[in-house]
Prior knowledge:
Blueprint: H1 22-26, H2 31-43, H3 54-57, H4 65-77, H5 81-94, H6 100-113, H7 116-128, H8 135-147, H9 151-159, H10 166-179, H11 184-196, H12 203-216, H13 219-232, H14 238-250, H15 254-262, H16 269-281, H17 285-297, H18 304-317, H19 320-333, H20 340-352, H21 356-365, H22 371-383, H23 387-399, H24 406-419, H25 422-434, H26 441-453, H27 457-466, H28 472-484, H29 488-500, H30 507-520, H31 523-536, H32 542-554, H33 558-567, H34 573-585, H35 589-601, H36 608-621, H37 624-636, H38 644-656, H39 660-671
Helix pairs in contact: 4-5, 4-6, 5-7, 6-7, 6-8, 8-9, 8-10, 9-10, 10-11, 10-12, 11-12, 12-13, 12-14, 14-15, 14-16, 15-16, 16-17, 16-18, 17-18, 18-19, 18-20, 19-20, 20-21, 20-22, 21-22, 22-23, 22-24, 23-24, 24-25, 24-26, 25-26, 26-27, 26-28, 27-28, 28-29, 28-30, 29-30, 30-31, 30-32, 31-32, ...
Amino acid sequence: MISCSQIPLPLKTNLKPPPDTQDLLSSPANHHVHNLRFSRHIKGPSKFPKHSNLPNLLSVHTKNPHAIYKDIQRFAHQNKLNEALTILDYLDHRGIPVNPTTFASLIAACVRLKSLSAAKVLHIHIIINGLENNEFIQTKLVNMYAACGSIEDAKMVFDKMPVRSVYPWNALLRGNVVLGGCKYREVLGTFSDMRGLGVDLNVYSFSCLIKSFAGASALFQGLKTHGLLIKNGFLGSDIVRTSLIDMYFKCGNVRLAHRMFEEVEERDVVMWGAMIAGFAHNKLQREALEYTRLMIKEGLEVNSVILTTILPVIGEAGASKLGQEVHAYVIKTREYSKQLFIQSGLVDMYSKCGDIVSGRKVFYGSKERNAISWTALISGYILNGRLEQALRSIMWMQQEGFKPDVVTVATVLPVCGKLKVLKQGKEIHAYAVKNGFLPNASVSTCLMMMYSKCGLLQYSSRVFDSIEKRNVISWTAMMDSFIDSGCLEEALGVFRSMQLSKHRADSVAMGRILSVCGRLRLLKHGREIHGQILKKDIASVPFVSAELVKMYGSCSAIDKSRFSFDLIPVKGSLTWTAIIEAYGLSGQYREAINKFKQMVSKGFNPNHFTFKVVFSICEKAGFADEGCQFFTMMKREYKIKASEDHYTSIINLLRHVGRIEEAEKFVLLKQSLA
């Protein structure tokens, strides 16, 4: 039998210790006494403590136990755990037993809310009622602790079970899946134990195993499990097949996912949803939208899950017309138009399509709002360059009674950095500290960048030093802070420290340090980084390959720059811009312009960054005619709006060659931007 002292007690409980032991129990040195006295107090109360809210919950004195059970279950279904636990306290003190069905509904509420503290209080009540050995309740407890993220507590209950069916085993598997990361080894270990003990595996056992591989991108293990499924005859299950499709997509193997899908004759909406989400996960927007059309063509209706999947896809593709059609469908169904997460998705979609006006209409047309919908609107303002409005929205949000959450804070901190509004940045920092958002990695990273952009590099360093559990993102953010402040040697030092730590640089960190090597003209260091890139097999990442080409150009090793460029299998605007810039950095201006012309002739579209590089080269070389020609090309052929940097380069170029009157015309055009 499990005693109360074996269960970690919650920090708060509705029960109070007797007055004569109050001081004794408050002492940390007597924590074990607290556990002991607490369990005695539950079992033998002299008088039930008064609950001020109990009369408002139900008239317990006039109801029989079965009516009270119904009230507890009603509160559980409404996720009102505090009220339900208050009534449980009352029943325990009156010696009225509670049935397993009532406890099952309370356990389900704990799972939905993922409230570990409430789960532990509930476990104590189960022990008091003598149901700790009930197999049905034990299975539910394993599932509850696993869902709340406490695998240790789940295993403690599991180990006490005399007979274990497949259901508690599956709960353990699911718990490790919920924890995510590289927990697939624990899942695989549990699964192997199940097979070794002869447990009758079911489709949910395999589904949990496959999901763990998907979360860890463990393709090889997934392929082995696929073979095991065929051997054991489980491949006919839609649950298993959908899990396999999801796993292959998350492991980046789109071909196998597609083949798995094509092998299924009758597909339900869940399987279609897995395909659409898989394409979206792999940035295949066109395919995601195409499969949505195919699903509708087969007579299946789009559900809320698929809607939340395709709305970001439409935004990323900039397909505003299609977005309006989806919006019309949402309004038509009515049920979906009331769901806040779909409303937030519509705001986000319109914002990404550059239509913030329609996004605002959706937001302010909604009868209900929450922190998520406010964050979607703030993100929309940022995407569309309305930074001041984004910052003001934080105040409006709080005036409506909504507290900014971790995501809201991480969204708005970069705005403070861009606008260099240190006062507001510090206020948000204080709010994050007060609400326990630190040391969240995302918030810490944003704080570091905000302080560096506001010119307070020492504050960035303090935030970085305060992070106990650093990751690659926080290390890279510290490097970026030094780079933005022009402290390139210090950025190099941070990179070296990261390599000495347990964290290994990813493609972003490698790209950043390559730019540092280029600016400092450290060819030897650059070559070392190049070697690491080849070892990690990330040379094909566009951002990394572009920085590699530029680094060699900055170090006047143009042959190596050209060689690196030629090795890139799939070239895009980013890599073409990099080789043009590399020739410019090495002083070979005519070759740089020829590369730009070659880029255009091969059908690659230059972007505003490409033209910025080209105008800068023309300015240095004095290519006035070609500079003006490219400026006209940018506006007329590529419909790119000229920025201040573009105008500045052209003005300086024309003044340098003595074409003052033409330069003055561009000055007037530049002033019209303000």
